[in-house]
């Protein structure tokens, strides 16, 4: 009987012009969802800046167009819920991930990549670049973030960068320009790090969007409230006729070998993409009662998660300490938001020995990256003027007006796995427990 209905269903699907796979699967685009209205491709040559709060060069959004961005992740609870909310509405976003977080939660950042979202970076440990004691320290924070996220994703990422606390420096802006990495500020800051109800957060984001009419929205995929507000925000965006624009990169980001090598020590034990084995295939309960994963998966994220440093974005209330190149255990407890569980047992302090010294790294400028012929001009107020020869049309190109194309900066299918056997890696439950301990004590 069931078979007969299945055959009838397939026949109906074929006759009505719907492919069997689309009929059988709940895939995007899907009727009734918000969807992606336009996919744009960004030529990051010369490090163009986006987001009118700081970089006023390229105002590529049309009226009612919205770009969704999420900083500071990945983090298990919030990122997974954010991914679900985005998938439910068939929309794509850009994630500015932190290197340490990505190596702490590689399986989550790989889910982000697999879902077709664009992944940019947001430094190694969320240290303020402007507070770096030397240019090399700031550069290492940027590059280690890039190599860390790249290693965790296990495939290409986009040459998109957002400064922690949205504070840049002229030196760093010029450096990113030479590296052909685009910089993103924001148009609409959700202020989702501030304690507030889910309803208040959703209403305030939608109100700001309505007032401005369009824009790049900054949120954080580390807060439970953000994940809970997102479905409400997306429903409102849909109801009010706003449209989602998906950002992709024309070419993937080129990492620097010296930082890849340093990061490999941090990533010790992390299997390459495709080499992972599900825990159930590695560890099997053969006697006694099997423990449930619930302890790790159902532990609800407490509301009191540490706020990211974005709260200092406009008016730092307390001076931030100048950061060393690698966090110390003491610093870990002082700024827990930037301290996900380490991906390896190597102590953070050890990493400093891998840091390039000024002279050594100065000669190791990005050889792979083509030097742009024209660099953006950083002004004293932090804004970036476009090189004279570049127009918005030459930097931002619509590659899809209605459906979706595969983002060039983020592969739908991660790079082919190497055939090395999976090295021991901490289980999800272990890391969840460590995170808890790190943030909330025993
Ligand atoms: Zn941040």
Automatic annotation (TrEMBL):
Keywords: Hydrolase, Metal-binding, Signal
CDD domains per the UniProt record, alphabetical: CE4_NodB_like_6s_7s
Signal peptide: 1-24
GO MF terms held by the record: hydrolase activity, acting on carbon-nitrogen (but not peptide) bonds; metal ion binding
Biased composition (Polar residues): 395-408
One annotated GO biological process: carbohydrate metabolic process
A single Gene Ontology CC term: membrane
Short name of one Pfam family: Polysacc_deac_1
Record has Mitochondrion as a keyword: no
Region of interest: Disordered: 289-429
Occurrences of domain NodB homology (ranges): 64-245
Similarity annotation: Belongs to the polysaccharide deacetylase family.
Protein name per UniProt: Chitooligosaccharide deacetylase
